């Protein structure tokens, strides 16, 4: 009935205070809803979510999901539902919807993407190692390197400088391979 079912998803790095402020703004907007019944149910749902949010000092490591609203049971009775939980793995979605259903698509996506990919990004300045699973990305390790550049001086020593440059580059690639083995294989 109406649009008083709230789906709220907060990603791990978000702030509770930002979400609380957003809910306060929504409360102000909802106060202008013309239909009395709908207005009261939306305001009630927003208030319930605000109270639930006060139980948390910070967003849990995997994020926070809150569903709140009035549903109609099989017997045709209205029942108020207020569910809050931390997903089983990090959820990288931010969502606030006040609608006629609970939006669980982001949670379904968590179940779907189980393939984990490892990435190595390297250039002349350093390397970065990370993983990607669904839309959850994580930087495992990164380091910078100072490789000597080619320069026009050296005269007789130009070949020796070139050898030193190649040796340093080889050591860098070897270090990247060692770290990759350590992070992704062992």
TrEMBL record:
Belongs to the eukaryotic release factor 1 family. Residues 1-112 form the eRF1/Pelota-like N-terminal domain. Pfam families: eRF1_1, eRF1_2. SMART domains: eRF1_1 (SM01194). It comes from the Eukaryota. One of its GO terms (molecular function) is translation release factor activity. Keywords: Protein biosynthesis. InterPro entries: eFR1_2_sf, eRF1_1_sf, eRF1_2, eRF1_Pelota-like_N, Peptide_chain-rel_eRF1/aRF1. This is Eukaryotic peptide chain release factor subunit 1.
């Amino acid at each position: 009935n109406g649009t008083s079912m709230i789906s709220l998803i907060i990603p791990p790095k978000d702030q509770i205070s930002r979400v609380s402020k957003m809910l306060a703004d929504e409360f102000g907007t909802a106060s202008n809803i013309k239909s009395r019944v709908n207005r009261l149910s939306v305001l009630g749902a927003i208030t319930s979510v605000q109270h639930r949010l006060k139980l948390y000092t910070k967003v849990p490591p995997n994020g926070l999901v809150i569903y709140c609203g009035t549903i109609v049971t099989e017997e045709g009775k209205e029942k108020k539902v207020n569910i809050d939980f931390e997903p089983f793995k990090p959820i990288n979605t931010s969502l606030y919807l006040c609608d006629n259903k609970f939006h669980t698509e982001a949670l379904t996506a968590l179940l779907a993407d189980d393939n984990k990919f490892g990435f190595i990004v390297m250039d002349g300045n350093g390397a970065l190692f990370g993983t990607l699973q669904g839309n959850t990305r994580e930087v495992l390790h990164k380091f910078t390197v100072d490789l000597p550049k080619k320069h026009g001086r050296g005269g007789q020593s130009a070949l020796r400088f070139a050898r030193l440059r190649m040796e340093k580059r080889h050591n860098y690639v070897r270090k990247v391979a060692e770290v990759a083995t350590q992070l992704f294989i062992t």
